[in-house]
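Q: Convert this sequence to structure tokens.
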Amino acid sequence: MTALTYTIFTDPAPLEASASGRRSRSIATVYLVVTNTARKVDWRSIEVKVPVGDGAGHVGPDIPEMKGEYTTNPWEGEATTAKVRVERQQGTNVFKVTPQAGDDTSFKFGDYLVLKLENIAVATTAGLAVLTVREKTEDDDGEHTRYTSVALVKTAPKEIAAPRDFRPDKAMVDEGDTLTLSWEGSAEFDYKVLFPGGEEKVPAGSRAWRPANAPKRATTYTLVATDPVTRQQHFLTTTVQARYPVLEKLTATTGIDTPWVQGRADETRGRLTFTGAGVEIFGNSGAKGTVTADKADLNGVTTEWVQGKNTDDGKITFPKDGLDIRQGSGSWGVVHADKADLNGINTKWVQGRSTNDGWISFPQDGLNVSEGGGSWGVVHAEKADLNGINTKWVQGRSADDGWISFSQEGIKVNREDGDHLTHLVVGYATLDIVKTRVVRGLKDDDGWISFRKEGLNVHRERGTERGTVFADKLT
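A:
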């Protein structure tokens, strides 16, 4: 039985063996704590033999050094710590621990010595590793050399903890933004990131990845972590939204809910906004915009004006009392139509399609019919139902027809040449007075009556011979 007591601890505990084939080994620190629980003793040396290798009975393949500190720990007073001398025996895995020169060699009750194998790579095989101790002490019975063993357990390597917290540095990106995806996880994994249309491996040791360009639409990224030893895989996903998504095609089966739709490029950044009353169109400056379409099927249009596609095209404006037709310059314009069904027209004049066509003007006392040149024109009609006609003359349809002129005394019936009075042919006439030079029967060779100052003459046929008066009575 040794004079001193030896207890072993590990950090971490339990001690996990390294996994064969992984990039890094399990790293640990082994503490050998020496205490005195029996009686006063002086210590000369403590030698510790460490099993070195990669097997089940080994601590690790390489034990570079051991460190030691002795702590004087009186029951009353403050504890003090001093380093001890630790030397590795040449060609061996034995570390010899001795007090520093001139130090007290008495190992008092309550004092303790801590020997430390720090940050060692643990062997790859699980099992029990035993450290052998040889102590040299002196007490009232003399010098003694005694041996003991202390053991530590290496557990089998655990599966690598699954990665976690796969996240973007921006949940919403704009065009031109940079995007970084990062996560927490072991360096033992082989990482790659999957994205629509491809995948990319992550450099060893990195816990972050950056796509070449920010996504143009909502994009889901998948982190795949693969254990190179067991080939077990872990999957994490995260989704990044685009503030102004660019879609090659959009099919909505039940509808789209959005407050507005806007173009992507600056020159086409018009916006369609949905209001409670319908929609509003804005240009990229924020002012009211323009709708360009081949056709529009609407129940109604409320607008201040309508104009052709060119800036100098005609324009229709809508004042409260109707509508105004204007040219692109702003002056009054022309309405072109096949037909117009109107209750009334207020206009200064009406003219045919050509500039030299006749036209009708509307003075206060009626209407004037004029030729294209401005002189009086002709009214052509099949019938005219009038309360009265004021005219200088009336003529038949042909230019050689007779005509009637209206003088202050009455009317004159004239032949085509206008120099002689001609015949008035009627079925029946009731007149108060007839002034005429001659009266003749219906036929040209009928007798005729001429009127002289002294009275009248009765002639026969076409000549001037005296004719016959026929009468029932003559008074």
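The mean pLDDT is 88.
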